[in-house]
Design brief:
Blueprint: E1 6-10, H1 16-25, E2 31-35, H2 47-63, E3 68-71, H3 74-79, H4 81-85, E4 92-94, H5 96-106, E5 111-116, H6 118-123, H7 125-133, E6 138-143, H8 147-153, H9 159-175, E7 179-183, H10 191-198, E8 203-206, H11 207-221, E9 233-237, H12 244-252, E10 258-261
Parallel strand pairs: 1-2, 1-3, 2-9, 3-4, 5-6, 5-7, 7-8, 9-10
Helix pairs in contact: 1-11, 1-12, 5-7, 5-11, 9-10
The structure holds D-glutamic acid.
D-glutamic acid binds next to helix 3.
Length: about 260
Amino acid sequence: MKNGAIGVFDSGIGGLTVLKELLARLPGESFVYFGDTARVPYGTKSPETVIRFSRENISFLLDLGVKLVVVACNTASAEALPKLKREYALPMVGVTEPGIRAALAQSNNKRIGIIGTAGTIRSGAYQKGIKSIDPAAEVFAKSCPLFVPLAEEGWVDNEIADLIAREYLREFKERDIDTLVLGCTHYPLLRTVIGRAVGDGVTLVDSAVETAKQVVEVLETNRLFSREHAGEFITYLSDIAPSFREIGERFLGRAIPAIELVSV
Ligand code: DGL
């Protein structure tokens, strides 16, 4: 089991930001990445659909013999993971819980902002998760749907991105938050404009980084840690758009070796 790959899935391309952090911290592992590019986005779909898609994605990864599943998609983590954790025996790590823990650890005034897709924010997963650990914390949540296409277009540090970020995030200025959770796979790419919009006094929590740290802990706890591999990974997609490699390599920060088309 120790030598099995780590399975990572996302609604599409964005989970490569999580894979990037996993590769950086776990050089002795191998990875299987599944991006559900045929059915992306998840952020605008109903919870029932996100749960169904996520279940199918996990079954696909299980058939490949993975030892652990990382739900790299915030929407799937928020809407589907609590239910799906009860259905499968293998360890699963989502991006929501690590983000929540990091936000509470970082925040001094316990006034925390959350940004994500419409589905993530509507699910209340971050809001409830923070409150369940610290009932006195104040949480302010906002969906920022235009950040996803901006990141994919590569408009991550220009006037348009600045304008959109300022418009979305203006309300956080009045809330006196000191911490903001980037609760979507795509948002780490926009951290410069997001940081500019909320101001220097606000710490940005990158769920991808926090998730990778949690995966290390879970592997150690379950004695699943491997040093046998060399950080190799294979990418499976449910649709291969012509732009995938170019955008994906930008998200991952390196070349994507093998891409295979599958249906789940
Ligand atoms: N991966 C999704 C998330 O992190 C963003 C894209 C989508 O809506 O599917 O929530």
